[in-house]
Design goal:
- It comes from Nonomuraea montanisoli.
- This is RloB domain-containing protein.
- InterPro entries: RloB.
- The protein is of the alpha/beta class.
- The protein has a single domain, classed as Rossmann fold (3-Layer(aba) Sandwich), CATH 3.40.50.
- It is about 45% helix and about 15% strand.
- It contains eight helices and five strands.
- Helix 2 links the parallel strand 1 and strand 2.
Length: about 200
C-alpha cells in the first residue's frame, strides 16, 4: 500500500512539473478593450524575450457580480492537471450597484479583483500621458480618441511597452489595495500587471 501511495505522489509531482508555465485566468467586464490589452501585453513581453504566463482572457460583457461568478465557475471547472495558479476579475466602477457585493464575494472566494475608476480606459490613458484630475467616461473617451482609439478598440500603435510608466502613474492614486474602490481616477490593474511582469521574468 505504501509503495503505491508513494508512486501516486510521484506521479502527481511529475504531472505538476510537466506544466510549462503558470496559468492565469483573467475575466473582464469588457469584451474588447480588456482582452485586447492583456493579450497584446503578453505578445509584447514574448517579443522582448520574456517568458509569460499562459493567459486565458475572457471578456463577458456583464456587471461585476457576474464577472466574479464566471471566474469562480471557471476555476471550479478546471481539470486537476490544468488548474489556474491565479484568478483575476477586471471590473469598472461606472455606476454598478453590484460592485460592493461583487468585491465581498471575490474576497470570500479568494479571487483577486482589479477595479478601475471610472473605467478600464483610465489605465489605457496612463500608457500615453499622466492624468491626475477627476474625469468622467465621456471626457476620458475623448482624450483616448485623440490618441488613436476608435470605440473600444486599441489603436495599432498602442504602446504596450509603456506598462511600467502606467504602473508609475497609477500607484499614487491609491489603486493598489485589495477589494477596495479608490477615488477617481484610479486603477488597481497596476497590481495585476506587476504580477504578470514580475512572474514572467
Amino acid at each position: 500500500m505504501s509503495g503505491r501511495s508513494r508512486g501516486g505522489s510521484d506521479l502527481r509531482r511529475r504531472r505538476n512539473t510537466r506544466r510549462e508555465k503558470p496559468r492565469i485566468l483573467i475575466v473582464t467586464e469588457g469584451e474588447n478593450t480588456e482582452p485586447q490589452y492583456f493579450n497584446g501585453l503578453a505578445r509584447e513581453l514574448r517579443a522582448s524575450g520574456v517568458e509569460v504566463f499562459r493567459l486565458q482572457v475572457e471578456g463577458i460583457g456583464r456587471d461585476p457580480g457576474r464577472v466574479v461568478r464566471r471566474a469562480a465557475a471557471a476555476r471550479a471547472d478546471a481539470q486537476p492537471d490544468d488548474e489556474y495558479d491565479h484568478v483575476w476579475c477586471v471590473v469598472d466602477v461606472d455606476e454598478h450597484e453590484t460592485l460592493a457585493a461583487a468585491l465581498r464575494t471575490a474576497e470570500r472566494l479568494g479571487i483577486q479583483v482589479a477595479v478601475s475608476n471610472p473605467c478600464f480606459e483610465i489605465w489605457i490613458l496612463w500608457h500615453f500621458i499622466e492624468h491626475r484630475a477627476h474625469i468622467d467616461k465621456k471626457a476620458l473617451g475623448e482624450k483616448l480618441k485623440r490618441l488613436g482609439m476608435t470605440g473600444k478598440n486599441l489603436p495599432n500603435h498602442f504602446p504596450f511597452a509603456a506598462y511600467s510608466a502606467a504602473v508609475t502613474r497609477a500607484e499614487p492614486h491609491g489603486g493598489t489595495g485589495e477589494y477596495e474602490v479608490a477615488g477617481n481616477p484610479s486603477s488597481s490593474v497596476c497590481r495585476l500587471v506587476k504580477i504578470l511582469t514580475r512572474r514572467s521574468q
